[in-house]
Specification:
CATH superfamily of the largest domain: Ribosomal protein L1/L10, rRNA-binding domain
Strand content: 15-25%
Number of strands: 10
CATH class of the largest domain: Alpha Beta
Largest sheet: 5 strands, mixed
């Protein structure tokens, strides 16, 4: 068995082997952990009581995090004509058509969000093998397939994030940075949980949010007490 590092031993001393807490305390506990030389991300993992194999129990949506993620979001817009300038003016990092499609076919993924106009989706659909595994495929439901590229870019830059159920029935998303004030992290987490609750499929029965855990990049996973977390 691998030995625990000094840092991990310190974390166990502070929080115990299997920590659990309400949101407010969980955030405070993450902040108490020994500091690192970089600003860690704070992530939430939510186990849902749905069958991810059933098409009518897919869970996907978007949410505005009040304080953003703290991450620099690099936005690519696949479009043409006047909408290229509109996208760039709205803050897109890259905008264009065929030239970016060819780059993606070659394996380029130098962006963290992709917006496309409907007329580009025939070509975008062919990029599934590159975009799909990275969670970058745009969709109308997420608002990333739209003729209003300026609005989509502005929303993403202001803190709009997408969430999606994975094959294990879990939603994993970043909800901020550890350097955020505790109150800001709490507000982001609550907003995220509320959005997931609202996305419950009509066909889902029983307990929807079965469990949730908060963690930092190099920190512990803290189980959230659902009577407080699941608003």
């Amino acid at each position: 068995m691998a030995q625990k590092s000094k840092r991990n031993k310190k974390i166990v001393e502070l929080l115990g082997e299997h920590p659990s807490a309400p949101i407010k305390e969980a955030v405070e506990q993450l902040k108490k952990c020994p500091e690192l030389k970089f600003d860690q991300s704070v992530d939430i993992a939510i186990k849902l009581g749905v069958d991810p194999k059933k098409s009518d129990q897919q869970v996907r949506g978007t949410v505005f995090l009040p304080h953003g993620t703290g991450k620099n979001v690099v936005v690519l817009v696949l479009t043409q004509g006047d909408k290229v300038k509109a996208a760039l003016d709205a803050g897109a990092d890259f905008a264009g058509g065929e030239e970016y499609i060819e780059k993606i076919k070659g394996g380029w993924t130098g962006f963290s969000a992709l917006v496309a106009t409907p007329d580009m989706m025939r070509e975008v659909g062919k990029l599934g093998k590159v975009l799909g595994p990275r969670g970058l495929m745009p969709s109308p439901k997420a608002g990333t397939v739209t003729p209003d590229v300026a609005k989509a870019v502005q929303e993403i830059k202001k803190g709009k994030v997408e969430f999606k159920l994975d094959k294990s029935g879990v939603i994993n998303n970043m909800v901020g940075k550890l350097s955020f004030a505790a109150e800001k992290l709490e507000e982001n987490i609550n907003a995220f949980l509320q959005a997931v609750n609202k996305a419950k499929p009509a066909s889902a029965k029983g307990i929807f949010i079965k469990s949730a855990a908060l963690s930092s990049t190099m920190g512990p996973g803290i189980r959230l007490e659902l009577q407080v977390a699941a608003i």
